[in-house]
Predict the structure.
Amino acid sequence: MVIGGSSHPALAEYICELLGIPPGNTLLSKFSVGETRVEINESVRGKDVYILQSGGGKVNDHLMELLIAISACKTASAKKVTAVLPLFPYSRQSD
């Protein structure tokens, strides 16, 4: 199962299209107080889950969304959770 974060939804859709699988059914939004909301609307029990989230843009929001999604998958008994970060946030810049 591939779950795309809100940092680059078009990339997640493209990858799922190449793999020939539908993207995971998720709801990614903010509560009215600004807290991150992640809902996974299908079962991940016993599945290998790949969460695609880039580190660009709103780095802190995207990183928290990734961590909440990982926690939700582990709580829901996913077999394996892999985070795919095409752009790693807070990495050291080259000189």
Q: What stands out?
A: The CA atoms of residues 26 and 92 lie 32 Å apart. The chain has a mean pLDDT of 89. The beta strands are 2-4, 26-30, 36-40, 48-52, 80-84.
